[in-house]
Amino acid sequence: MNQSTNQQHQSHADDQVDQHGQGAHGQGYQSQQLKQSHPEIEKQPDRSQHQNLHNDQSHHQHSNHGHQDGDHQNHNASHDHHEGHYNPLQMPCDWEIARKHALSRRTAWEKKKDPMKTLQIETCPCCGFEVDREDIPYCSDPMALSFLGSGFTLFYNYLKYCIIILFIQLLVKQLHNLYTNFNGSYCSHIKREKMEGHIIEEPYCPDSIFLQLSLANKLDNREALEMMQVLNFISIFIIMFVLIYFRKSQRQIDTTIDEEQLTPADYTICVKNIPTGLNVDYKYELKNLFENYSVLDSSKQIIVRKVVLVYDIEEIIVLEKKLDELLQSKKDAIKQSNFNFHHESVQKIDEEIEHLEHQIHKIEEEYETHNTNFAGIAFISFDDESMKQLVLQDNPHTQWERMRSHVNRGKLRSLTNNDLQWNGQKLFLEQAPEPNDVDWEFIHITTSEKIFKRVRAWVYYILFESAAFFIIYLISHRLALLGDEAHEEELKGKLDEDTKRKINIMSFSISMTIVLFNKFGVAKIVHYIVDDEKISNKTKFQISFVYKYALALFLNAAIISFLVDIVILKNVKGAGGFIQNESQIFVLNAIFPPFIWCVDPWSLCKNIWRKYIMSKGDKALLTQQEANKLMEEPDYLSAKRYSDVMKTMWFTFMYGTAIPLGTLFSAFGILIYYFVDYYNILRRRTVKESISIQLSTEMIEMLEYIIAWCAFGEMIMTYTFFKEVSKIDILLIVLAILYQQLPMEDISEYLFPVENNEEIKPYAEGSASFDTDYDRENPVTKHKALAQWNKKQQSAENPNPKNKKILAQQEEFGYAGDGHFGRR
């Protein structure tokens, strides 16, 4: 919204206040006079019930969960599909448009432009991203990804600190353990057992490098054990300090990126609990409300630049499913008519599609014109960030207030003059997520439905994990018993080499099957469960996924082995026992994820499928939107990356005392993973999500459980091997519990404050470099907003295109701003 529009709205607001005696809240012109004489009541809203003289009429593009920016079916009225106009349903598809779409969605910088030569910028018609891009060098610092938001740079910094923490553990504690374990002699001692009347001699441990380098090999070295406990205590204290500083490092990166790059969220708040069903123009009323009553200090000017409403789009989703069925019928009809796109049966279906598109278009117009199905949520953008911060600061709320409001159907008793309210409902304000971090399909879901679905999701998760845990437990238990039986047969001399080889192959096959199930099967099922929670924010979706997936991986990899080998069979250092099995898991964890990620079967399969489909030409029978999706690289999902790393860290710190070699494997495994993942995101993935620092903060909270797992693992291993619990182990447990209860983020901010020196930029200047915006992501307004954005970028008369902004910077500052980030 430009300045003139705001002035018109403000003038219109003043006229309406003069004309109407009573407003929407029973307040009229008299309220304006009271406001001037009594500033303490200035936050009691004064608005009249009227419709604004104009409404934006938009088309709708439904966004399926987990996909953004042109990957959804866009079903618009056919009269817009004239020649030269982008039609997402066109068939046969235009592969050149699809190719340009794929280029615009690459993880690459926008190409630097010469402002003296570049008058127009080519953008993708379906998503609005620039087509002309240049690759990011593989050797670049992850800060090069800052144009995607801070989330991805924070992830690579997260990996760096995980590697640092593992190497600290390795240098302070585990190198000493490896040395004393290697020089130990316990496993080479001979024991005698009586079996079927014969005395059999065998070493205490099988001949294995894993056992030789494990805690089992120094069970007779009390002095080394005590030294190990002291070094563990020291390493934990160092890691605690590193974790506190790690939080500061993440905040510093997020602040630096925020200073370098302006995004829509810098100007925007999300407003919830807005009354629905009122016969008013919500955009105008919200603009008037926030410009006049949202701050306590009446001398502070607040200017609203844009209001984007959220709608309940369930009705449209149902119609779009019918439209998808018609598209499939059209494809079948084309095949039956020997690929005659103008056959009578095909044209008949086209007419039905046109009619349904027109119906969807009319519904969308109804949504915006009459505020039909308004969900009570809006995104409001201000003229600069200071205004946004002031509004948020003056309108706090508590979780308790939100719970009470939900119970009372949006109402709150005992509202004060300082509460920003509408029809007795307190408006709940919060920092808005980035536009492509919002899940527009689920944001309208009511609180009651969210509670029900999340409780149900947890029930499904517990049932699934219990079943998976039980099945893996039975397999592991049977495998362990088989190993014990084979060992007894071997001692009796009755086990031939072929049988032994078959048992080893079966053992490895079962172990690999469990690993593959954890890697692929568990991830898929957990994704379905979390998707059913209908979370309105992609960052929160990722957090929920990581919690459930990492916990499942950890239970299946670590806890089952503990129960089977230690608790039930009590086979700790024997053949096929705890030490041997967990050592193999350490090796698989270090090698398998980086190897699979390097081979990248997902990209290979998609490349093969893409070549096959494109070889069909017009017979491929893809809509333009489907072709666009096919030409993209696979989606990058941060949650799976975090889960893999989290499981490795937890597992390493729990069993690192018994198997110090595992720390070495994990450190180099994550190091390799870092470089492979960075290559993949630059060359073999499409990024469609804008992840906030909230995900990184939650992941640090989860990472800090390594303190508890380390203390617990130390105590369990000491008791398992030495049948005692030392005082230092108890002290570590107490310390770990205290550490988990302390507000570590607040402590980190106090010890290591981070200053934000961001220069305040007006919305008109900042919005010129936005890659996306709320109206370009909102399914109801997306089509029209994208069309206007594309036209604006290609217009020589545009006062704020990116190339003219570069020229202005050259004139004012003597340098060209970095086109990669939209700012210097």
From TrEMBL:
Composition bias, Low complexity: 19-33
Gene Ontology molecular-function annotations: calcium-activated cation channel activity
Regions that span the bilayer: 154-172, 227-246, 458-476, 505-526, 546-569, 650-676
Disordered: annotated span: 1-86, 781-824
Coiled coil: 316-373
Keywords carried by this UniProt record: Coiled coil, Membrane, Transmembrane, Transmembrane helix
GO cellular component labels: plasma membrane
Residue intervals of the CSC1/OSCA1-like cytosolic domain: 266-441
Ranges of compositional bias, category Polar residues: 1-10, 790-801
Biased composition, class Basic and acidic residues, residue ranges: 37-49, 66-85
Domain of life where this protein originates: Eukaryota
Record-given protein name: CSC1/OSCA1-like cytosolic domain-containing protein
